[in-house]
Amino acid sequence: MIEFTLNGRQVRTEAEADTPLLWVIRDEFDLKGTKYGCGVAMCGACTVHIDGNAYRSCSYMVGQVAGKSVTTIEALDNHPLQQAWIEEQVPQCGYCQSGQIMQAATLLEANPNPSEQDIVNHMSTNYCRCMAYVRIKKAIQRAATESQAGVNIFDPSAPNQEA
Ligand code: FES
Ligand code: FES
């Protein structure tokens, strides 16, 4: 029995410890946003966050996440990157995109004002067979700019800030 946190919820699995995390996420917890691409940690389609860092879930065994916190694209609700992705019309076939966004999210978390080279370096291990790289870069730049401009997304559950 392996216990971990998945998108903020405590979960447990009977999967063998050497089962790729990707299969557990997709097949047991039915979170299909994380994609299988190469299966050998090369393409980035399967990127998730583990304790806040980006990892390749195809090559990360579920036994390694015991006691850790895993976040998938499904929990990235209303992230500035998602709006920027829409505005820049980034996806083509879409297959690589959740991995791209999860990878980009860790960049903006660590560096809210990345240079173009920072973006290129951070995203260089995520492949897009449709060659959407220019739009991916523009969307990350837009999300960074808009986040810094203080564009807030309305959260109806947030307490009223007005006196
Ligand atoms: S499917 Fe995991 S890196 Fe390609
Ligand atoms: S949008 Fe098709 S692989 Fe990236």
UniProtKB/TrEMBL annotation:
Name of protein: (2Fe-2S)-binding protein
Pfam families to which the protein is assigned, alphabetical: Fer2, Fer2_2
Keyword flag Transferase: no
Keyword terms of this UniProt record: 2Fe-2S, Iron, Iron-sulfur, Metal-binding, Oxidoreductase
Any GO MF annotation of the entry: metal ion binding
CDD domains: fer2 (cd00207)
Species per Swiss-Prot/TrEMBL record: Oceanimonas doudoroffii
InterPro entries attached to this UniProt entry: 2Fe-2S-bd, 2Fe-2S-bd_dom_sf, 2Fe-2S_ferredoxin-like_sf, 2Fe-2S_ferredoxin-type, 2Fe2S_fd_BS, Beta-grasp_dom_sf, Diverse_Oxidoreductases
Domain of life: Bacteria
Domain 2Fe-2S ferredoxin-type: 1-76
Hydrolase found in the keyword field: no
